Amino acid sequence: MSDQTCDVLVIGAGPGGYPAAIRAAQLGLDVLIVEKSMWGGTCLNIGCIPSKALIEAGKTFEKIGKASAMGISVQGAAIDMAQLQSWKGGIVENMTSGVRKLCKGNGARMANGAARFTSATTVQVTPDDGAAYTVTFKSAVIATGSVPIELPMFPFDEDRILSSTGVLALDSKPDKVVVIGGGYIGLECGQMLDKLGVQVTVVELADQILPGFDPSIVRIVARRMKKCGITTLTKSKVTGARRDGDGLIVTVQTPEGDQELACDKLIVTVGRRPFTAGLGLEAAGVAVDARGFVPVDSKLRTNVAGIYAVGDVTGDPMLAHRATRQGEVVAEVISGKEVACDYKTVPAVVFTDPEIATAGLSEQEAKDQGFEVKVGKFPWGANGRALTLQDTDGFVKVIADAADNQILGIAIVGPHASDLISEAALAIEMDAFAEDMSLTIHPHPTLGEAVMEAANKVLGHAIHVMN
Fold first, then answer.
1. Secondary structure letter of residue 311 according to DSSP
2. Residues belonging to the active site
3. Same domain, 38 and 126
4. What DSSP string runs through 155-219?
């Protein structure tokens, strides 16, 4: 390909990059989006979408085993891992092809290759199967995302030592796994495998799984994990692993002493780091912080005029929906609109069992910021719809300012928390009060009623739970 010019160069076609390219093209800018390997990025290919597909498969298999309580008898249920991977792959292909079609349909030019800055206005693009060429841009958006953190002692081979990517590509079911890291990625992977019939042990260095989460929420998930047979070792550290036939013997340092655990696979999920390797940021003069992230302001501008960054590469929270919003905003900033990232909350979801979803401040965060709080908590055991779903662990928790009942945060642990949290995010964005949520009629019988009931509890007049 010959040298190119464009108004906007987007590097990376993940959930931050492709919305930036689409929106910029919609605004009439000449856009070139360059992707090295995976259109749709980590999320669509080896992250959010495939993991949720496998998690849903695990939940479905578990539900089949519990169907007898409803009078439904199922015999001979089994997991075909090859078919499961094929089904997952079909979903991924459908979505990633959709990304390409949307970029093209909105007028963005697309190119495959690795991009490397050569100055503050040029990059070199190297395709897999062609000669390198230069792209000269007026504005550039860095949207290269993040990759799993690799521990020096346990380098990924995606055979015995797996990253989250390797877990999602398993074509046969291991008997036993050890998961290093009890954060959201480790627990999502561990619980998914447990539901498929794998013996799982989770090792977490902190004093609780899901470090940083409200302990009252963590207790619900920890109790479910224990009930399902998952072993959790907190305040513990994996100190070594050695080969043992086709598997591994993993040494774990625990408060009670060292343990040796036999497993088929060791899964390492200790976080993610920004992907900037080979980007040539130094040639463009783009600054990075001590952790390798690219600092940006509310308009997603880096320290170099005309160069912007969005998504995981800009730091926490590393969430796809945050990246997408940033991608839309940066396109409008580049087009000259007076916009900025001014959202009040970025909702977070953990697809554990039960699910966790939060928006706004936690109870402890609100207190740390000086608020006197009122808390309304409504248990799923008092919700008719949850009872029919056989899913009553957990609660909805509304945190409000005691001075005027303004909603500061909402936390949900339980069935379909991921679907319910959007109402909470909207309430916080609109500066809603507990009265607003209480006075909004919620349909019956639904899970959404629990959010209203928790708001009623803040006000002291909940109907279906004692005040």
1. G
2. 444
3. yes
4. ---SSSEE-HHHHTT-SS--SEEEEE--SHHHHHHHHHHHHTT-EEEEE-SSSSSSTTS-HHHHH
CATH number reported for the structural domain that contains residue 419 in this entry: 3.30.390.30
Q: 340, 298 in Cβ contact below 8 A?
A: yes
DSSP alpha helix (H) spans, 229-362: 281-284, 320-334
**Can you spell out the DSSP letters for 7-32?**
EEEEE--STTHHHHHHHHHHTT--EE
Q: Enumerate the β-bridge partners of residue 258.
A: 253
- Asked whether residue 129 carries a pLDDT value surpassing 90, the answer given is no
Residues 137 and 22 in one domain: yes
Selection from 231, 224, 226, 273 nearest residue 252 by Cα: 231
Is 143:313 a contact under the CB 8 Å cutoff?
Answer: yes
**Phi/psi at 206 (nearest 5 deg)?**
-75, 175
Residues forming beta bridges with residue 9, ordered by sequence position: 32, 140
Residue type at 321?
A: H
76 pLDDT band, cuts 50/70/90, is confident
pLDDT at 1 over 80: no
Using an 8 Å Cβ cutoff, are 244 and 182 in contact? no
**Number of folded domains that form the chain:** 3
Q: How far apart are CA 353 and CA 417, in angstroms?
A: 10
Q: To 5 degrees, how large is the angle CA 164–CA 166–CA 171?
A: 130
Looking at residue 130, its pLDDT comes to 83
Q: Are 306 and 121 in contact (CB under 8 A)?
A: yes
Return the half-sphere exposure (C-beta side, CA atoms, 13 A cut-off) of residue 130: 14
Distances (CA, A) of 305 to 33, 138, 257, 283, 309: 19, 10, 55, 14, 12
Angle at CA of residue 106, ends 103 and 112, nearest 5°: 25
Residues making up the chain, counted from first to last:
467
Question: What phi-psi label fits residue 210: left (phi over 0), alpha (psi between -120 and 50 degrees) or beta?
Answer: left
In the prediction, which pLDDT does 426 show? 98
Domain range enclosing 193: 161-270
73: exposed, middle or buried (C-beta count within 10 Å: 0-12, 13-18, 19+)? exposed
Residues 12, 141, single domain; the answer is yes
User: pLDDT by residue (tens digit) across 308-356?
Assistant: 999 999 999 999 999 999 999 999 999 999 999 999 999 999 999 999 9
